[in-house]
Amino acid sequence: MRRTLTLTIAALAAAALAVPASAAAAPARGTTYFVSTHGDDHANGRSPDAAFATIQRCADVMVAGDTCVIGGGTYHETVTPKVSGTADAPITYEAARGATVTVSGADAVHGWHKVRARDVATLAQSDPFVVGSAFSQAVDAGDVYSVPIDLGDDVSPVQVFTDGQMDVEAQWPYPGSDPIHPLTIERAATGSTGATLVDPALTQPAGYWTGARVLTSYWYATETGTVVDSAPGTLTLNAAPPCVHTIKPAQTRYTLAGQIAELSHDGEWYYDASAKQLYLVSQDVPDRHRVETKQRQLGFDLTQVSHTTVNGIHLFGTSIATGDDSTGILLDGIVGTYLSQFTDITQGATNCGTTVNRGITDSGIVIKGTGNTVRNSTLSLSAGNGIALLGSGNTATGNVITDVDYAGTYAAGIAVQGNGQTVMRNTISRVGRSGINLQWTLPGGTPGAPDHIAYNDISQYGNLNLDTAAIYACCGSSMAGTSIDHNLLHDATPAIGTTEKFAMAGVYADNGQSDLVIANNVGWNNPTQTVMLNGLGTGTHNVGVYNNTGGVYMMYVKGPGESTGTVVENNIGPMVGTTDATNGGMVLTNNMGADIDPLFTDPAHNDYTLQAGSPARNAAIPLPGINDGSTDPIPSLGAYQYGAPRWTAGAERDPSR
Prior knowledge:
mainly beta, globular
């Protein structure tokens, strides 16, 4: 078993470094078309002076080998090509040299009028709580405006921007402007149970919150529901949270939205779906600013095409998706902000899986099909993913992803489903839950290809959840030899206001993951070590945990046969749960625990290479393909081989970009 696993990293690395044929082949020369915000779709588009006005017009006329050069400016459209390129002659959409090209999913809102006291009186006829509220005080101060607009019947996807920054839906407690780090965290108090939430801070009168949307979050489970009854100090929800089945005192955090009386802070909005009226608090006249609402989910809809390149395009309030049959799609140098938005997580679901997985397959840049790549892109601010890798044989490399999964579900910086995916040299930070989430199970025992998750730098994870990791894999799956190697995993950030820090690991194989190689990863400031194994359910089988730095945490692997085939070897750091692990059949050998100083070069500055006098030198069991490279006759323990060049992780960018 060990020899099979130890050869995996070298084989996967060689495959990952091979340049895809679609990227390497010189494109056949075709026609170049031009687009300008000052263009005309009735022009021929074949010169800057005869440019089209829309990118869609390019999409309508281009064939394999053609290029669309887009001039600077903002384009409010969804580009939907119907014609594919070929492997040798892709169709290309690219920003003109030196131009900033933005495809926006948001449209401007004009015609705001100031809300007056008489408007409050009218609202009070159906909602008496607005009288004397923070909302009415903001109206008296002259800071509330409204505009008639149809944003649909569902408030969940509504998103409002002022001068390119997301405004906040009116809610309690007021969250501030940073969705990853809410300004205030409110938690259920003693007496909470089932669908009853108790909190003395709920001082509003009886009925005030009835009908409001409630978001609850406990450990790994974030859900939404409806308040069916409210009184000072207590709320009754329509149902207990479906994952946890009860509200946990001191641990369940919650927010409440859907009450206009809470609308009072600058940059807050409230949408009345029945009256089709949008309200905004602004200390200046909104028409003097660029106020926009999200109108389009996709900037490029590539679901029907293949062999298409999108290069150097900015996305605002929108995203890109490929289709089940797409291949050879290359997204290069994308700068995406506010990729996806939703606030309804449960969506009427009564089961845990539907709820916690909200956004995994349909948010962020969604890559389906096979042989598609997202690279060298900067992605930030998404209720769900930065990137979703579905299908098989797709790649995410060289991307910088921040401030995503602010809804706090199992969405991630990069959500990996399907199989045979490559996720290499990405930098991911400030995420609600995990930096990379691996969840895939193939139907009917179908054999899958291994994923390769390597050389990524992931930090500041778990801002809104516990029971997670920088790289999280779940549940009960055979991962076909997937390799998680050479990643820097550090600085977990457990949710504000909780004393719990359970399962904040670098790599977490949760609930019976099997057939994995976890090797040469380095972690620091992770409460539950660099690697965590949880055999709950089907057990942890055939997992190789080799040469990691930062320790290993083992749980629910103690029963007979619960961890057969699993080897933990050559690691440096605390070994937690070792007695239970060996009782379950796991092999623990040649690890350096916390009782021995490995003499790292400069751990205060996160340099975990080895000093000359380190006892980790010449101490490892040789594992070809895993701990090669030492200048000593015998390999070193841990993730850095003595004398070998120090490997690096994270996105490496061309300075000219």
